[in-house]
Write a structure and sequence with these properties.
38% helix, two-stranded antiparallel sheet, mainly alpha, 190 residues
C-alpha cells in the first residue's frame, strides 16, 4: 500500500476551513453549516487503491481501512475544536458541525437498521467488479459498468458518492440530530 505520510498535509484543510469561516463570520454571516470528513477508509475507491493483504489494517466491524479513518477522525476533531472556538468568538452566529463520519459508520455497523443490505454495505451500486464492485477502468457511466437493481439497498453509489437514500438519512440527521452539532433546526430556532 501507499504511505499515509503525504496525506497529513491535508489536515491544513481543517484550519483553512476555519480561517475562511472566520472571514465569512466577520462579514456578518449568521447561519453556517460546516461538513466534516467522511470515514475515508470506508470509501470503495480508497479500499481498492490502498488494499492491504494484512487483515489487521482493516476494522473488523466495518471492513474499513483503519489508518485512513484515523486521519479522518483527526481532521474532524481539529475542525470541531476550531468551530467550538468560533462559536465563542461569534456568539450571534449559529455554526453547525455536520458530521459525515458517524452516520456512515452507523450505516456500515447496522445496515439493516437504516434500510441497507448487509451484503452490499461496502460494495458500490454502479460499478464493474472487484471486491467492492469498483474498477477505475470501468467506473460508473463507462462501458463495462452496470447499476444494481436496487440502489436504495446500497450505501455507496459509484465508489466516491453515496446513494440518494444514504444522503437523505445523513441530511435528516443534520436537521434533527444526531449528526448535526447542534442540529440545524435547533440552531435556527435559537
Amino acid at each position: 500500500g501507499k504511505r499515509l505520510v503525504h496525506h497529513w498535509d491535508k489536515l491544513d484543510l481543517s484550519i483553512g476551513v476555519a480561517l475562511h469561516l472566520q472571514a465569512v463570520l466577520k462579514e456578518g454571516a449568521r447561519y453556517v453549516v460546516v461538513p466534516g470528513q467522511l470515514p475515508t477508509g470506508c470509501i470503495p475507491i480508497v479500499l481498492t487503491l490502498y488494499a492491504s493483504p494484512n487483515k489487521r489494517h482493516y476494522d473488523r466491524r466495518t471492513g474499513c481501512l483503519r489508518k485512513y479513518n484515523a486521519l479522518a477522525r483527526y481532521h474532524n476533531g481539529v475542525l470541531f475544536e476550531a468551530l467550538y472556538r468560533l462559536r465563542i468568538k461569534y456568539p450571534a452566529a449559529k455554526i453547525v458541525y455536520a458530521d459525515y463520519y458517524a452516520p456512515l459508520i452507523d450505516f456500515l455497523k447496522k445496515p439493516k437498521k437504516f434500510g441497507f443490505s448487509a451484503s452490499s454495505k461496502l460494495r458500490v451500486c454502479c460499478g464493474a467488479g472487484g471486491p467492492y464492485n469498483y474498477n477505475m477502468t470501468a467506473a460508473c457511466g463507462f462501458p463495462g459498468a452496470t447499476a444494481c437493481a436496487n440502489p436504495a439497498a446500497h450505501v455507496n453509489w459509484d465508489g466516491i458518492h453515496l446513494t440518494e437514500p444514504a444522503y437523505e438519512r445523513i441530511a435528516a440527521g443534520w436537521l434533527w440530530g444526531p449528526y448535526g452539532h447542534p442540529p440545524i433546526l435547533k440552531a435556527m430556532r435559537q
